[in-house]
């Protein structure tokens, strides 16, 4: 199992503030002979439905000297995890969690936006200081 991301507890707290129940920390998936650990699994019960929403969240801090290298790693993990989830837990929606500063500085660039749109990456943008989710991007 890999080490927790620098902002793991901040994202966990932000999800809880937003009404999510953390069900897995981490969320373990075994698929095609590969064992994977997605940072968090969460569930939100919706009063109008019998079944709640289920998500998985992969958290990335983007703190190295190369944002594009961090993006390659995060993107690769996201795509691998999404493939496994579609087979093992298709009811769960996968989000890539990035902090607001990284989102504004890197994820708003045309190249990054094109990749996100082309591969339909869902983002959870959080504020490190307030420990709150500021945006869900589907």
Structural commentary:
The protein is of the alpha/beta class. It has four helices and eight strands; from the N terminus they run H-E-E-E-E-E-H-E-H-H-E-E. The longest helix is centred in the middle third of the chain and has 22 residues, at 67-88. The protein starts with 7 loop residues before the first helix and ends with a strand. The model has no long low-confidence stretch (mean pLDDT 91).
List the SSEs and their pairings.
Blueprint: H1 8-17, E1 21-24, E2 27-31, E3 34-38, E4 40-44, E5 53-59, H2 67-88, E6 92-99, H3 100-107, H4 110-118, E7 123-127, E8 132-137
Parallel strand pairs: 5-6, 6-7
Antiparallel strand pairs: 1-4, 2-3, 4-5, 7-8
List keywords for this structure.
single chain, 138 residues, alpha/beta, 6-stranded mixed beta sheet, two-stranded antiparallel sheet, 8 strands, 33% strand
- Tally of contiguous helical segments: 4
Count of individual beta strands: 8
Radius of gyration: 14 Å
Major sheet: 6 strands, mixed
Estimated structural class: alpha/beta
Topology as a string of helices (H) and strands (E): HEEEEEHEHHEE
Estimate what percentage of residues fall within beta strands.
25-35%
Span between N and C termini? 28 Å
- Portion of residues within helices: 25-40%
Low-confidence stretches: none
Described by the principal axes of the CA atoms, the overall outline is: globular
Q: What's the mean pLDDT score?
A: 91
Task: Give the strand order, joined by hyphens, for the main sheet.
Answer: 1-4-5-6-7-8
Brief rundown of the structure:
Helices cover 36% and strands 33% of the residues. By secondary structure, the chain is of the alpha/beta class.
């Amino acid at each position: 199992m890999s080490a927790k991301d620098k902002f793991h507890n901040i994202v966990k707290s932000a999800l809880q503030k937003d009404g999510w129940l953390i069900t897995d920390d981490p969320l373990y998936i075994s698929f095609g002979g590969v064992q994977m650990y997605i940072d968090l699994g969460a569930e939100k019960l919706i009063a109008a439905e019998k079944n709640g929403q289920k998500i998985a969240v992969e958290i990335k801090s983007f703190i190295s000297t190369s944002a594009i290298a961090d993006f390659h790693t995060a993107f690769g993990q996201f795509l691998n995890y999404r493939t496994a989830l579609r087979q093992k837990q298709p009811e769960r929606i996968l989000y890539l969690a990035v902090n607001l500063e990284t989102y504004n500085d890197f994820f708003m660039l045309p190249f990054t936006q094109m990749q996100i749109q082309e591969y339909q990456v869902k983002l959870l943008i959080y504020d490190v200081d307030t420990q709150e989710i500021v945006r869900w991007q589907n």
